[in-house]
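Model it.
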Amino acid sequence: MVVVFGCNSLPAQPGYQPTPENLKSREWFEQARFGMFIHWGIYSLLGDGEWVMQNDHFTGPQYEQLAPQFDPVKYDPAQWVMLAKQAGMRYIVVTSRHHDGFSMFATKQNKYNVVDATPYGKDVIRQLADECHRQGIRLFVYYSQLDWHHPDYYPWGWTGRWEGRPTNGQWQRYLNFMNAQLTELLTNYGEIGGVWFDGMWDKPDVDWQLPRTYSLIHQLQPGALIVSNHHKLPFPGEDYQTFEKDLPGANTAGWNSAPISQLPLESNDTMYPSGSWGFQLRDLQPKTLHDLIQYLVRAAGNNANFLLNVGPMPNGEIQPAFAERLREMGAWLKVYGDSIYGTAGGPVKPGGWGVTTQRGNTIYVHVLDPTLSALALPGIAKPVEEAHLLNGGNKVPFTNFEGSLVLQLPARDAQEVDQVVILEARR
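Modeled.
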């Protein structure tokens, strides 16, 4: 992950009309609200994130030495999927191939993959897909269009510009390789929730032949969703919009200046305080429960899912502290999940105080600022008949003043991350 330059406007899949299966998937996606992102590959062995090949300028032969050392004997996909469910997550997005070009699945397109090049010798994606199907959670595959290893990824993009790389190659042959791998992923692993693309920003001026790729995906699995981390308005053929390390409409990361589309939305971020996506040896503890829950709540209040990343260790385990944090989030969602799942962004504009979410005539007011004793909410059109706390059910006094609904907030526990007030509007 990470990007600096945007892509030119591309035709993508002109005239694309989503199928009924696709529209059903979009509806499900909007209601899911919470997903697990997994960045895992041979880069995990170095414990310095997923960009270590680029950052340290490893040549292909140097970096290839990692593959014979990759033997994740503690990889247990059943535990991964169970942990996602314990966290209250509804889908998983896993790196089938990152920018280093190493495939974590059994591909016939080259030998640079987890089955043919490692002592582990097993298909990581196959095992995870089977377990997701068994436990009833949707699996999406992350696929990097950028490749620091393949000889036909030429001319080079703005990354990977170090000595030792081939200085020739056939771009069309690379695109054929990419589409052949996508065909494998969409035909050999059962139902796939969608394809999560990244890396097109590396070469913004080349013809990526997106109509061909997107048509291929939608033909092979009509219900699969396509998203691209290109930080532009979605192109025709894409089914939702994702925002890297930002909420929709924000641009703290510096590359999220695109307008918000009418498609389903997602915000993705990592648990590592350092900002790394792949395993980071220096990060012993994840972000706080307070910060992660508030991000989840703010995402929902901005009508978006929260895709939260973990970077498993090279042995296949998710760090215990990170796993425990996810379980803590799941415990919170068991109490407050009704205010998140299946909701849309509510009628009141998000602010420093918090956000609102809504389902039908029920409005959930998420008060994230613990210092407030009263809160004025403008913009609630329907008369409110009742207000009470989600946790405990105690009634919350309210009045109407100058066009705003004013809540008199009860005292809250010091550990309460989000005080949720339920407003029942008149039908």
